[in-house]
Design goal:
A five-stranded mixed β-barrel has the order 6-9-7-8-10, surrounded by four helices. The chain has a four-stranded mixed β-sheet with strand order 12-13-14-15. The chain has two domains: about 5-300, Alpha-Beta Complex (Spore Coat Polysaccharide Biosynthesis Protein SpsA, Chain A); about 305-390, no CATH class. With about 400 residues, the protein is of the alpha/beta class. The chain has helices at about 5-15, 55-65, 80-90, 105-120, 140-150, 205-210, 225-235, 240-250, 255-265, 270-280, 285-290, 305-315, 375-385, and strands at about 20-25, 75-80, 95-100, 125-130, 135, 155-160, 170-180, 190-200, 215-225, 290-295, 300, 325-330, 340-350, 355-360, 365.
């Protein structure tokens, strides 16, 4: 086979993998405060290498690239991160890296992408993906996304769920409704209607949800066409929808930056779950056209140092579950610790379940259980004027 024929074959294979009319919307505006002191405003966790050589946003793009139509990767971020992200993702078109003038949570971010794409290709499926999650089974993940895209093309709104493994209080939950006939394209992917959403339950509820076997964690990954989401925003968030529609209409004109900067901060700061999915689920299973694909693809949102410890320790099969990144380290009668101090020798002696993270200008010392509260440190530093440390 000639080199030219080989290139054509590879190109054809790539085209076969690509999901027709599919755009990836990668949300990358978060500040990652629970990963302080490594994560800062100008360098949050999505642009850090926490679980390998590549950064989290690089891994996110790598996962979705085989699914995406040519040139249809969009990044929603902010001024602080745009240059870093452009450098880390050189294949993404600069005009598709959108800088929010103000942080307004996920509903305006998702809605903006929907209104922009609705103008030129309303039937394009938008896959919404946070930039700071991990997926262990990438092939399974892609199969679930393809199945979800098939549903979305029929006008459905699809959320990717994760089968819960513990009574987690830091995640949103989806109560699963009736099972739906499997998709012809992949009958191994279960499809359930959505009954309702519950955001971050207390421990008692979380345990009940886990025992019932009828709940999934809300992964924060969604699929819908541009028109479906734009129409949902018009119905459930009319004020924000009107603002986003004006911004989209200015795209490609000399006034776009000015219109974007003026109108976007006027959008309500609200998550897509509260803004659209919860009111849509209130219509009832039969009318909402809301579906969940409970996918088991080894997902983690790495929402805290404890979650990172669990993720790395599981893959390293550490006999004492210590995870240590240091120039050199010694462990004596110590278990369950996470330590990041790459330029020093670290000794663990008689300690359990500690988190110690050292950077050039700060040291964090907490427990794995307490690591969910690290964001409060950032809030305290801001309140005392120590913005140099945030």
């Amino acid at each position: 086979m000639s080199g030219k024929d080989s290139r054509r074959t590879k190109a054809s294979a790539a085209a076969d993998d690509e999901t027709p009319g599919f755009a990836a919307i990668i949300l990358a505006g978060g500040s990652g405060t629970r990963f302080w002191p490594r994560s800062r405003r100008a360098r949050p966790k999505q642009v850090l290498s926490l679980d390998g050589d590549r950064t989290m946003i690089q891994n996110t793009l790598e996962r979705v690239k085989p699914l995406v139509s040519s040139g249809q990767v969009w990044i929603i971020t902010n001024d602080l991160l745009a240059k870093t992200i452009a450098k880390q993702l050189p294949d993404v078109e600069a005009k598709h890296i959108l800088r929010e003038p103000a942080a307004r949570n996920t509903a305006p971010a998702c809605g903006l992408a929907a209104f922009l794409l609705e103008r030129s290709s309303p039937e394009t499926v938008l896959g919404v993906f946070p930039s700071d999650h991990t997926i262990g089974d990438v092939e399974r993940f892609r199969r679930v996304v393809r199945a979800g895209a098939e549903l979305a093309r029929r006008g459905a709104m699809v959320v990717l769920g994760v089968s819960p493994t513990r009574a987690e209080t830091g995640y949103g939950y989806i109560e699963l409704g009736a099972a739906v006939k499997p998709l012809q394209s992949d009958k191994s992917i279960p499809v359930r209607r959505v009954r309702r959403f519950t955001e971050k339950p207390d421990k008692v509820k979380a345990k009940r949800f886990l025992r019932s076997g009828n709940y999934a964690w809300n992964s924060g990954m969604f699929l819908w066409t541009a028109k479906t989401l734009a129409d949902a925003m018009r119905e459930h968030q009319p004020k924000t929808a009107a603002l986003l529609e004006q911004i989209a209409a200015a795209r490609g004109t000399p006034k776009f930056d000015e219109v974007f900067a003026e109108l976007y901060p006027q959008c309500e700061s609200i998550s897509i779950d509260y803004a659209v999915l919860e009111p849509r689920s209130a219509k009832g299973e039969a009318k909402s056209e809301l579906y969940c694909l409970p996918g088991d693809f080894a997902w983690s949102d790495l929402g805290s140092w404890a979650a990172l410890h669990e993720y790395v320790a599981e893959r390293a099969e550490s006999h004492n579950s210590n995870v240590v990144e240091a120039e050199h380290h010694v462990e004596i009668a110590s278990t369950g610790c996470y330590v990041f101090s790459p330029n020093k020798t670290v000794a663990l002696v008689g300690v359990k379940d500690l988190v110690v993270v050292e950077t050039d200008d700060a040291i964090l010392i907490t427990t794995r259980e307490g690591s969910q509260d690290v964001g409060k440190v950032v809030a305290e530093l801001k309140s005392t004027g120590r913005h140099d440390l945030t």
